[in-house]
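Q: Second attempt. The first request was missing the SMILES, so the protein and S-adenosylmethionine are both included now.
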Amino acid sequence: MREFVLYSRKGRTDSKFTSLRAAGRLDVVHECIVASLFLSHGIRRNVFFHALLSGPPFPPLHLCIDGSRLRNAPTDQGAWKEILRNVLSGKFHPGLNVDKTSFEALLKAKSNEAPIYVLEEGGKNILEVDIGKNPVFVLGDHIGLPRKVEVFALRYGEKVSLAKQPYLAASCINIVNYLLDRKAILS
Ligand SMILES: C[S@@+](CC[C@H](N)C(=O)[O-])C[C@H]1O[C@@H](n2cnc3c(N)ncnc32)[C@H](O)[C@@H]1O
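A: Got both inputs this time. The predicted holo structure:
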């Protein structure tokens, strides 16, 4: 099992939007969903993806996607605009759940059962970190983690870096998935 937790500063918390980009950059959330959960012609059944949506009008909202139960989900942005609109208006989609769990409560709960890694350029080189079982990776959106959120996350997790360059959030997820896939092959 592996989990990704994306903190979305402005991600909209209702279904009243015309484009994902205009909805507080839910397009970034979509990119991270695809990077977390999709293989070519397949879904990563061993992944949970979480987005903490902190935009108007009802923050915070916790969107959770369980790869083992996800169905009827192509990868394109148009399809996810409809899927996100549906779940944000209270409709059901297999594998998706929306609730009022806060970032702080989620991390606290996860820290009891899994190692937490906070992705940040300035952290420890991930290649030198012995990633534990069922890891949880926390990352920021296009702007990055708010300072307060990062400080809170570091009470429970370790800061790890993929490189000195700032990557797109979805690229970070792709890299982590690749490294964990390689590790699984080699071990
Ligand atoms: C688009 S980046 C945001 C960059 C923003 N300039 C910042 O200072 O955070 C989104 C998120 O990806 C993660 N990230 C980006 N580059 C990284 C790297 N080289 N190593 C680890 N995490 C990275 C961080 O969690 C960051 O908050």
